[in-house]
Design a protein that fits this description.
Helix content: 25-40%
Largest sheet: 9 strands, mixed
Structural class: alpha/beta
Strand content: 5-15%
Number of helices: 20
Oligomer: single chain
Shape: globular
Distance between the termini: 27 Å
Number of strands: 16
Length: about 600
């Protein structure tokens, strides 16, 4: 075991920070008490009591502390810490560094004045907690809150209180019985049987009726969205950090839905790969590299998009795009797609066959094992880093959970979850989603919303309207439905963003979201106190916005800290005033979020895994 030392200066006082490292996997930072200046803040009585309670925890024969909420078999993974370790960290303060130029608050080795524990717990001080509770201190992780420049009122600061609560009486679609044709919403397609001439005619008539209903409904939503946008009393946020030069420049880009175009335009190379899953679905992945860089490809990083998006989502911010930024850091970037994206098909079923669209979140989670195996085979690495946004996080959480693809965790060096889709947000309880939740019957759902792709009028409109006009119309629709604001967006990039958003997806997938995810309030059962995830779960970073209306991240963080002792946490990043997509397309995401993603990758990857 080795150690790295860095030094800083705090009001003229040198402070040393040690980081313990095991095989290129740095563990949690701590400040050695023997090297602290005499002015180090002492604990008050309540914090002292919290620490003292640790001494009452049982110890194993080796002296390792067992967490009070877990049994002896649930020791925190990858490091067994004794009471002597905790004693050496007894006077570890929390540090915040305020960058005078950017106003970013980070967890660095710069001290601040002691803060009353009681004042913090009562919420009278708007500061980070310098007295971590016993579980956080034992886990060695804290919630980071960088300064985003967005000022919120008290209600917006507590948006997580509006989360949808878990309903244990709601059945999961996995446990429902398969209904008769044509409600093909349960997923073992082998049970559906074959189509005859009459059944196909009947199916097409129903699809025509669905097209009429959804076209009228979409027209109503567009009108409501325009009224909402023009409403002078609607809630608005002031622009966070205006980068005038970046926002007003003219790049000359066309509005394309091809990722290859943007790669060529900015001087990168894009290669398209196709892979076939065990179920026969064909998926497309885009591998991005920089031909100007000498040497081989770097460490593989997978970017997985969210719902109603495709792989282009990570490349719409010009040189500030997450995909391009990671390539510039030397990584081998793979931007992957779910089923049906970019016209991908199936080895047996045509895209007009309802069986092609018969999948939900569970099946997308199953595909991730095939995706990871394929990329590891192509790169000849033993592990890769996974970065997901929204649905791309929910599917990976499912894939890594107990009872699913447990071995998949050994193939990931890290998992970064941006806007994690584990707990639904309040926007999914509003119109039009509230109406969709009323369609409990699969037969009625299939009649009104079809058995193929979801809302086909959107795709028809995309093909008929000019890209610039479609982008602005889609912005109005998505802003109204998902309660999005644009205070963190670059205005001129809105039409380009909606070349990668609002794409075709399965009607069954939306049925799952409305009748399992929203009704049940979680993709798992949060009433269970036993861990959702096995010991093979990779190191995890979670980054979420405080005003995200589509999903909420704080309940997941609370769950991870309280019950998920098998998960090694790297970064927990709470971004004030950030919404659902701002972790990727926010105007300052490249300064606040991207470096944390890189740090997660570098702190967890095995340096000996260089590929062959």
């Amino acid at each position: 075991m080795t150690s790295l030392e860095t030094s800083g200066d705090t009001a003229g006082m040198p402070v040393k920070v040690k980081r313990r490292v095991r095989r290129a996997r740095p563990l949690n930072e701590f400040v050695d008490a023997s090297e602290m200046p005499e002015e180090a803040p002492a604990w008050d009585s309540e914090a002292e009591s919290a620490y003292a309670s640790l001494k009452d925890l049982p110890e194993t024969s080796s002296g390792a502390v067992v967490h009070s909420n877990a049994g002896a078999d649930s020791l925190y993974p990858r490091e067994r810490r004794t009471l002597s370790d905790l004693e050496s960290e007894r006077y570890t303060p929390t540090y915040d560094n305020l960058d005078a130029d950017e106003g970013n608050v980070w967890n660095e080795s710069v001290g601040h004045e002691p803060v009353s524990y009681q004042d913090y717990m009562e919420g009278s001080l708007d500061v980070e907690n310098p007295y971590l509770d016993a579980s956080e201190q034992h886990r060695g992780v804290r919630l980071e809150r960088p300064n985003t420049g967005v000022h919120l009122n008290n209600r917006d600061k507590h948006r997580d209180d509006d989360m949808v609560h878990f309903d244990p009486t709601e059945d999961s679609p996995m446990h429902e019985h398969l209904e008769s044709f044509p409600a093909f919403f349960h997923h073992p397609v082998s049970e559906y049987g074959e189509f005859g001439l009459l059944s196909r005619i009947y199916l097409e008539l129903r699809q025509l009726f669905m097209l009429l209903v959804t076209s009228v409904s979409l027209g109503v939503i567009v009108q409501l969205a325009i009224i909402h946008y023009l409403n002078p009393f609607r809630k608005m946020y002031s622009k966070s950090r205006t980068d005038t030069e970046f926002e007003e420049r003219i790049t000359g880009e066309r509005l394309s839905d091809r990722i290859e175009y943007y790669c060529d335009y900015w001087g990168y190379r894009c290669e398209e790969y196709t892979l076939v899953t065990k179920g026969g679905w064909i998926l497309k992945a885009h591998r991005i590299s920089d031909p100007r860089r000498r040497g081989g490809r770097g460490y593989p990083v997978v970017l997985q998009h969210g719902i109603l998006c495709n792989s282009l989502f990570y490349f719409t911010m010009e040189e500030r795009s997450l995909g391009f930024w990671l390539v510039d850091q030397g990584y081998d970037v793979w931007s992957t797609n779910i089923r049906s994206n970019y016209g991908a098909g199936h080895t047996k079923y045509s895209r007009s066959d309802p069986r092609f669209w018969a999948w939900g979140l569970m099946e997308l989670a199953d595909d991730l094992e095939d995706v990871v195996d394929y990329i590891l085979e192509q790169t000849r690495h033993r592990q890769l880093a996974y970065v997901g946004h929204s649905q791309g996080t929910g599917t990976m959480f499912l894939a890594l959970s107990n009872g699913k693809h447990v071995s998949l965790g050994h193939k990931l060096s890290s998992f970064t979850a941006l806007g994690p889709a584990v707990f639904p947000g309040p926007a999914l309880q509003r119109f039009p989603f509230r109406v969709m939740q009323r369609l409990h019957s699969r037969w009625l759902w299939s009649l009104l919303l079809g058995v193929r792709d979801f809302l086909p009028p959107i795709e028809i409109t995309r093909k008929l309207l000019p890209a610039f006009l479609f982008g602005h119309v889609a912005y109005l629709i998505f802003g109204y439905c998902f309660n999005f604001h644009d205070h963190n967006w670059v205005d001129r990039q809105k039409p380009k963003l909606f070349r990668a958003t609002g794409v075709q997806t399965s009607s069954e997938l939306l049925y799952y979201y409305m009748h399992s995810f929203v009704f049940r309030g979680c993709i798992f059962d949060p009433t269970k106190t036993t861990p959702w995830f096995p010991r093979s779960f990779p190191p995890l970073s979670v980054m979420y916005g405080t005003i995200d209306s589509l999903v909420v991240g704080k309940p997941l963080v609370d769950r991870l800290l309280q019950y998920e002792s098998n998960v090694e946490l790297v970064h927990l990043l709470e971004l004030q005033g950030y919404e659902h997509m701002d972790m990727v397309i926010g105007v300052d995401a490249y300064k606040l979020v991207f470096p944390k993603i890189k740090d997660t990758i570098e702190r967890t990857r095995d340096l000996e895994d260089s590929g062959n």
